[in-house]
Amino acid sequence: MSKLPRGTGLFLVVSAPSGTGKTSIYKELMKQCPHIQFSISHTSRPPRRGEVHGRDYFFVSRDEFDVMIQREEFVEWAENYGQLYGTSRAVLETLAREGDKDVILDVDPLGAKAIKDRYPQAVFVFILPPSFEELKRRLTMRGQDDEETISTRFNHAMVEINEIGWYDYVVFNDDLPDAVSLLCSIYRAEKNRVMRKKTEINKFINGR
Amino acid sequence: MSKLPRGTGLFLVVSAPSGTGKTSIYKELMKQCPHIQFSISHTSRPPRRGEVHGRDYFFVSRDEFDVMIQREEFVEWAENYGQLYGTSRAVLETLAREGDKDVILDVDPLGAKAIKDRYPQAVFVFILPPSFEELKRRLTMRGQDDEETISTRFNHAMVEINEIGWYDYVVFNDDLPDAVSLLCSIYRAEKNRVMRKKTEINKFINGR
After folding, report:
1. How many CB atoms lie within 10 A of CB A9?
2. Structure pTM?
């Protein structure tokens, strides 16, 4: 099990099933907490308009992705709707080495579990919609999917939500500013854990 | 080991040696977080002008306090400058039963350790002045104590600070509003731990 060196940045692992409104949360969080950055995933899907390689994703071919899987270069990877997405071990290790950077990793519960196995000091947050009815409403109101697709998304969300028990924190996304401010509070609290402030504490104690 | 019933309030145990500015922090925290209340201690010292029995302290005679010690009615107690202070088990159990109340317990590390043994789910915060020099300056600038008293207070503070290792969080009180806002963030984050939101999560999952 690799351990982060002391005093390094924080890995904030967030899982948010479809319908939780995570895109809006992340956008607002970046404004409120400029110190946090996203861990950039690899993907086999082609870039959408406006997406930049190395900023939004590392775009690679499916073959390249497969080779990376075989070489065990991913901490976690998953196939969603026919496309591969993964978190590269090298990307995380670089971030961990840089030390003062805090990153958000947006991964599903399976990926989050793999990250927990490797980085037990990471912090795990699950985002939930305010209620079961609201989840159903949000998945339906997109209006672009047929009933079967909606039903599949819904069942998938519920399977994911059943994993919440081993997460550290839950954020109910009822009101966007509230949810973001709670996520910021979690981040701020975790940054000030005694185990993450050892350098400052030792400096204090040895200051006399 | 007594366990708090599920879904009860949060016990926020704060230790802050002399010179950390805790009185100002608590005063401001009560304004910002009206949900939190102080656990009321028992003391053998006589009330000061303006202090109210049952609001500031439960004022008892030294004999009464001694009887309570013998009956093991305190979770923790200590003697400071010739006066006895203690946290009554009955007070805490009542708060724990009431369920939705969150309390701050202001106790020294010895008392905090006793509370941790009994209530492992409590959250432990240590407040530190911004630096060793500042601690010294704050203890000296009161201007009402002789050098020996200052030296005793200082050494006592350093003995307490050496206990910080087993606390959950550290708050450096450099800037008062910042320190209070961090304490609020810690409180808010801890309130949203998955283990403390079991009722809401189960309600969500069983809502279908």
Report:
1. 20
2. 0.89
